[in-house]
């Protein structure tokens, strides 16, 4: 019974919502958790028979399993999507998730690099090595365009419009967006393409990827993590630095500079403005620190 509901939900996520394979798997895991709980209770009700009280007991169960608030909120989000599908397909008349309360989460502000710290990392790249020129182009592009790690490793030559200062990015859910690219990033991509990439024997199927390893294959996400972690260490940066830190820094510097939030949302490829609004919180934190540093009334007495 539940297998057919899950298959229909999977098809809806893939076809109607155009979600990536990873996202689809995550949503299905959330529904699987619910069915696992129903089986343990020996009460495998159909979706239309499940009540708010059932779901509250389910939440209590996953809480007792030791799941974090973030994991619990993620599962609730998955179940809400599942019931949206169930109502569209007339599987369930009511949505029991409507009054289901997610755990209150403290939004942790991520580490952000200053422009000086980003430059210090880039300055540590050894340009005497072929991978140095590639890594410089990668970091310049990540900071210039606010790309996700998956977007930088999958960036293709056919998506570069450097003559007009744009790149075409394939983001989450295969959604495309055009992002402006800065002069410095453009310059180092051109140097990499002209002086380094042309000397790499490209493995079949990798011809269109911009950034390649020495074996002629596209880079892995893990490789980008290693590159960035190593450069942060060399630059003496004590913060937790990952590829996503460059994306956070890109957005934070824009908002601190007075950029329109809708424009930042568009460049980051956020589906909802609420996701982008974290940067207004970062901005307020920045303003408070500035006042505490420079305004006499805010200084500790």
As residue ranges, the low-confidence spans are none
Helix % is 55-70%
Averaged pLDDT, please?
87
Number of helices: 13
Main beta sheet: 3 strands, antiparallel
End-to-end Cα distance: 68 Å
Please summarize what this structure is:
Strand 2 and strand 3 form a beta hairpin. About 55% of the residues lie in helices and about 5% in strands.
Question: What does this molecule look like?
Answer:
The chain is mainly α and about 300 residues long. The chain has two domains: about 1-90, DNA polymerase, domain 1 (Orthogonal Bundle); about 115-290, hpI Integrase, Chain A (Orthogonal Bundle). It is built from 13 helices and three strands. It has a three-stranded antiparallel beta sheet with strand order 1-2-3. A hairpin with a 5-residue loop joins strand 2 (about 165-170) and strand 3 (about 175-180). Helix 2 packs across helix 4 (about 70-90). The chain is globular. The N and C termini lie far apart (about 70 Å).
